[in-house]
Write a structure and sequence with these properties.
The protein has 406 residues and is mainly α. It contains 19 helices and no strands.
């Protein structure tokens, strides 16, 4: 009817910060990692594991969302108020450092994806920087959110592609391959990667100024659950796709994007390789935006600066300055010749493992506090589930640190 405002489809109402945070967790490195996992072990063990870990991702991200909406404050602000400036400063400094290293791997991944499409390395990095910075100049939060959702939902094409592949590894063979120490390492890595520190800061920051508590907590849970489902669908699809090129990539454990792309193109045609290259670029771009935003929110909160994505650059120069500085520093480092990206990625994983444990513990304490949360404090069942997930995260962190140390 003319003049009548059309309401969005119910599914679209579930898309927001929760979807962005979860989909960005499938970053450029994650695409290769999941594919390599499938090519090394098959699909029968790791896809169920990925699905089980959805519980961990949802539990932690739901706490981050609920804390932001119920308190109307960010995690960093509450950490300072409840536990002092020392804990706040330590976590902000650690997060900012880890985010810079994470961004470095994202820009390497983005440029690698574009290089696979024939774009020179320098031009690939420059294009990646321009697109990442352009987000800051979009008008209003909703425009920024739509930009990110458009990029993130592109990776759902891997789910469609998975229906057309045929795994080269059967269930029994896959279970036989999934033994030994390397399986334990891959399983622990997947558990550790189910949630990243920047995901908590991003979703918490995005929801901290929502207003109406009951309405936005209910919608936030739907948003978070939708994101977790999308994330695990893409991860499972990539593992399944990887299992279809089992034995086709020599030394698959140390394989890079060109080798994986060549194997997929050989098996399924050029489209498969192009899809992987575009997926690497899109995933890296989405992760670069969300990781940079999480740095902006945490630093802005720690200094008491304005930090609302509805603000313009003139209204929040510190917030957008941190965003731009993060992007430019990481992109500049990505141009360093013969950079040992694999070593950086391992170091990022170790830092993330160490940083994640105290963040989740403080997150649980804050969401369980009636003083902070009021009637939206965690119930008994939520506390039990939260502690269970914390034990899993801490175990994965310890295993990762011990493996790297050895």
């Amino acid at each position: 009817m003319r003049g009548k405002k059309r309401r969005p489809l119910p599914f679209l109402l579930c898309l927001g910060p929760g979807v962005l945070a979860a989909m960005a967790d499938n970053d450029a490195g994650g695409l290769i990692s999941y594919t390599v996992t499938g090519a090394k072990f098959g699909w029968a063990v790791f896809i169920p594991l990925a699905m089980l870990l959805t519980i961990v991702t949802y539990t932690v991200q739901e706490m981050a969302m609920r804390l932001g909406v119920a308190s109307e404050k960010g995690y960093i602000c509450l950490l300072r108020e409840q536990y002092g400036k020392g804990w706040m400063a330590c976590q902000v400094a650690a997060l900012f450092t880890e985010n810079l290293l994470t961004l470095l791997t994202e820009f390497v991944g983005m440029s690698a994806g574009l290089e696979l499409l024939g774009i020179p390395a320098g031009a690939a990095v420059a294009l990646s920087v321009c697109l990442a910075l352009s987000v800051a100049f979009l008008s209003g939060y909703r425009a920024k959110e739509r930009f990110g959702l458009t990029i993130g939902l592109f990776n759902m094409l891997f789910v469609v592609f998975a229906f057309f592949v045929h795994p080269a590894v059967g269930v029994q063979q896959s279970m036989a391959l999934s033994t030994g120490t390397r399986f334990s390492w891959y399983a622990a890595s997947m558990a550790g990667n189910a949630i990243a520190p920047w995901m908590i800061f991003y979703q918490n920051g995005a929801y901290s100024e929502k207003g109406s508590k009951e309405k936005h907590i209910k919608g936030g849970r739907a948003d978070t659950l939708t994101g977790c489902i999308c994330q695990v669908l893409v991860a499972s699809a990539l593992i399944f796709i990887g299992s279809s090129i089992y034995g086709m990539v020599p030394d698959v454990e140390n394989a890079g994007a060109p080798q994986i792309m060549a194997a997929l193109a050989q098996e399924y045609g050029p489209f498969a390789g192009v899809l992987l290259a575009l997926g690497m670029f899109g995933s890296g771009l989405l992760a670069a935006v969300t990781v940079s935003m999480s740095s902006s929110w945490s630093v802005a909160e720690s200094f008491g600066w304005s930090g609302n994505m509805d603000d313009t650059f003139k209204e929040a120069p510190g917030f957008y300055g941190i965003y731009a500085a993060s992007v430019l520093l990481a992109a500049g480092a990505a141009l360093v010749p013969e950079l040992r990206v694999n070593a950086v990625a391992v170091f990022v994983q170790a830092v993330s493992a160490v940083l994640m444990a105290p963040i989740v513990v403080f997150l649980m304490l804050l969401t369980s506090s009636r003083k902070v949360m009021g009637e939206y404090a965690s119930a008994k069942g939520q506390k039990i589930r939260s502690w269970f997930c914390t034990v899993i995260i801490m175990a994965a962190a310890v295993f990762t640190i011990l493996d790297i140390a050895v």
